[in-house]
Model the fold of this input.
Amino acid sequence: MADEKKEGICYLVGAGPGDPGLMTLRGKECIELADVVVYDYLSNPDFLQWARPDAELIYAGKKSKNHAIPQGGINQLLVDRAKEGKIVTRLKGGDPLVFGRGGEEAGELVEAGIKFEFIPGISSTIAGPAYAGIPVTHRDHCSQLTIFTGHEDPTKAESSIDYKQIANAPGTKVMLMGVERLPIIMKSLIEAGAAADTPIALVRWATTGQQRTITGTLETIADIAIEQHFKAPAVAVIGGVVNCRETLNWFEDRPLRGKRVVVTRTRKQSSKLSRMLRELGADVLEMPTIRIVPSDEKEHREFAQMVINAHTYEWLIFTSPNAVEYFFDTFYKIREDAREIGGCRIAAVGPGTKAKLAEYRMGVDLLPEIHVAEELAAKFESDVSVENTTMLWVRAKDARDVLSTRLIEAGAILDEGIAYQTVPETDDPTGAVKRFESEGADIITFTSASTVECFLDLGLEMPEGIQIASIGPITSKAILEEELELAIEAKTHDIPGLVAAVLELAARE
Done:
C-alpha cells in the first residue's frame, strides 16, 4: 500500500518519435523513477524495459476509432494514481504539447491539486522529415515553418482549420494526423489557393525500422497513398524542401531496412544487439524468452561464501557476462577494496565475458580462440598445470558440466559457485509477442540454448520463411535438436559476430 503521507507527482513525458536514441535523458529518468507508467500507442514500448520490475504498466493507446481508455478516463487515472502518493510517468509519443493533449492532462492535474512536470520530447514534425532526408527549413527553399493537424475534435460543429491561411503561408507546412482524411485535406488546400504541383512527402512510423516514405504532389498524393495501402501513423511535409530528399535520404538505404529481426536475449541484455541491428535499419522485435534471476537461498549462501574466499583460489573462471556481474555485485556487498580479491588469475570463455570483466577493471589471463566451454577446458589442459590447482567456476544453475568434468579429470580442485539461474520470461509488456504472432518476422536470433528452449515453451509458430541465426555451436546444437532449420551460425561467437551473420543472411536475398 502506498504511503498516504507521500506526495504524488505526474511527469508528462514526450517519448519522441520512436527511435530509442531520441528519448531524452530526463524522460528515461522519469520512467526509471515511476511507480506507474501510462503509455500510449505512439510511444515506443521498448522504453518499458527501463521501468522498475514492480512498476504498474498501463496501456492507454489511442488509434482512430479505437481508444484503449477514453481521454477522460486517462485524465482520471493520472489523478487517482498520483493521489495515492505514487510517481506517475505519462509517456506520450513525440512532444506532449505538440497536438499531444498534454495541456489538457496538466489542467486536470492542476485542478486536482497534483504536482506535475512537462518533459519535452522530440516531435515527429521535425524528426519525421529529418529521417526522410527532408530539412523542414533550408536557406535555398524557405525560412518559415507552419505546423497543423489534420485531425480535429470530432465534437466541433465545423472545422477551425483555415485552409486558405495555410495554403497562402510561405515556407514548409507539416501536418500531423491527417492520413485518413488526405483526399479532403488536399482538395481543401488546392481550392484555397495552394499550387496543385506542390511537392509532398508522407513518412510513416518515422525514425523506426518500420519507416516508409512516399512522395507526390498535393494533386496526386491521396491516390498514391490509396494505391500503396499507406496507413497512419504518418507525418506529412509539404513544400519545395521535399525535393532535398533526392540527395539527403540518409536513413532509408541501410542494409537491414525492411527486415524484421527478433531478439530473444533477456530484456536487460538485449540493448546492445538491438541497438546494433537498429543502426543497420532493422525493425527490431525485442522478445525476451528468458530472465536472469538469483540462485535459490541455499545456493546463494554457498556462492556468497565462495566469493568471500575468492582470495584463496588460484583461478576464477567465468563463462558468461552474467556470472561476472553476479560475482562482483556480491563481492562489493562484502568487500570494500578490490585488492581483497587476492592474486588469483582469471579465465573467460569469450570476448563478451572479457568485456564485462573489463567494466570491473579486471584483466583476463586465459581466453580460448573458440568461445565454448570445450575449448576453454582444452586451453587449461594445454597451457596451465591444472593438477591440484584451486579453482572457482562462477556459473549458472543447470550449466553444462563439460568444463567441470574435464577440469576435475585433469586433477583440479574445483568449486562451483551457482550465481544465478535462467527462467522463462512470461511477460509481454511491449507487445512484441503479439506483433510476432500477427506480423511475423524475417530473421530470429538466438544467443544461447536456453533462449531456444524457452522460445519454444511459448508455443509460438515459426512464420513461413523465417530464418534462424545462431550465436555459436552450442546454441546451434540446441536449434538442430529441436528440429528447427538453422540458416546461419556466427563466425565469431559474440554479438558483433551475430550481427554480421544477420547481415550475411539479408545480403543473400
In short: The radius of gyration is 27 Å.
